[in-house]
């Protein structure tokens, strides 16, 4: 079974979690980790002071174990999400820039970059509300939604498992505490589903799903369709200023 750890890099250096990276490597777990920029100013502005350096420490720890290195078999993918209320840029172009910048600035290597649209939920949703941008962002997502992306949204082939073993249609639904579609009784534990057939099961959807179907589409595997959206590729070249 292919297992992906949706990793917050800073956790790898937290007290009590020092052996986590080694455990993941031993188990051949694929790692998909958020790094919204290769510039410290941008990451700390979005995620909080010190997050960038802690993330670099996590990446160095993973590289030392072989993650991201050719032929190691240990996959390390990074995730970019826009700093503001816009759709992600072209994934392939940005991946090239990330690879060059992280290698030359910090000596860090990784396999692939995934661009993911910001979901209008939780912290980003709150930011949108506080800036009175929520309605505009939802309109952007809805107006950019492409029916073709419905074929490959990640909830059709992946499930998300919380740290306590509860199963969700995706990690966004997990963040919202939304139980599997077709499960009105509430949250289901992985142990109850090990032999279950997921074919044809309903998926729980809501307005945030437009975040997966807008533009080139997005999910934990990055863009669903590769297409050029050059308007946003320069958005991370310089540190953001106050919005
Ligand atoms: S947010 Fe909606 S469309 Fe996207 S993966 Fe989850 S359930 Fe599927």
Structural overview:
- The chain is an alpha/beta fold.
- It has 2 domains: about 1-115, no CATH class; about 120-225, no CATH class.
- It has 8 helices and 9 strands.
- β5 and β6 form a beta hairpin.
- Mean pLDDT is about 90; it is low at about 230-243.
- The chain binds iron/sulfur cluster.
- Iron/sulfur cluster (SF4) binds next to α7.
Brief write-up:
By secondary structure, the chain is an alpha/beta fold. Helices cover 31% and strands 12% of the residues.
**Computed Rg:** 18 Å
Overall average residue pLDDT: 90
Strands of the largest sheet, in order across it?
1-2-3-4
Taking pLDDT < 50 over at least 5 consecutive residues as the criterion, the unreliable ranges are 229-243
Shape: globular
Tally of separate domains: 2
Give a quick set of tags describing it:
243 residues; alpha/beta; 2 domains; 3-stranded antiparallel β-sheet; 9 strands; binds iron/sulfur cluster
Strand and helix layout:
Elements: E1 4-7, H1 20-26, E2 30-34, H2 40-47, H3 51-64, E3 76-80, H4 91-106, E4 112-115, H5 122-130, H6 134-144, E5 160-161, E6 166-168, H7 171-176, E7 188-189, H8 210-213, E8 218-219, E9 222-223
Parallel strand pairs: 1-2, 2-3, 3-4
Antiparallel strand pairs: 5-6, 6-7, 8-9
């Amino acid at each position: 079974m292919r297992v992906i750890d949706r990793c917050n890099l800073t956790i790898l250096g937290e007290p009590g979690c020092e052996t986590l990276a080694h455990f993941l490597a031993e188990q051949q777990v694929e790692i998909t980790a958020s790094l919204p920029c290769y510039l410290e100013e941008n990451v700390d502005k979005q995620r909080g002071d010190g997050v960038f350096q802690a993330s670099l420490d996590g990446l160095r720890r993973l590289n030392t174990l072989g993650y991201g290195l050719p032929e190691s078999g240990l996959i390390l993918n990074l995730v970019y999400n826009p700093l503001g209320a816009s759709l992600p840029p072209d994934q392939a172009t940005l991946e090239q820039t990330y690879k060059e910048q992280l290698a030359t600035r910090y000596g860090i290597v990784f396999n692939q970059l995934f661009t993911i649209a910001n979901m209008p939920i939780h912290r980003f949703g709150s930011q949108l509300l506080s800036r009175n941008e929520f309605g505009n962002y939802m309109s952007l997502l809805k107006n950019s939604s492409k029916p073709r992306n419905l074929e490959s949204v990640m909830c059709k082939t992946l499930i998300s498992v919380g740290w306590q073993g509860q199963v969700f249609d995706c990690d966004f639904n997990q963040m919202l505490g939304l139980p599997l579609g077709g499960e009105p009784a509430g949250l289901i534990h992985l142990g109850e589903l090990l032999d279950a057939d997921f074919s044809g099961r309903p998926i729980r959807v809501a307005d945030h799903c437009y975040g997966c179907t807008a533009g080139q589409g997005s999910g934990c595997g990055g863009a669903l369709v590769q297409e050029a959206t050059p308007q946003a590729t320069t958005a991370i070249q310089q540190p953001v200023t106050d919005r």
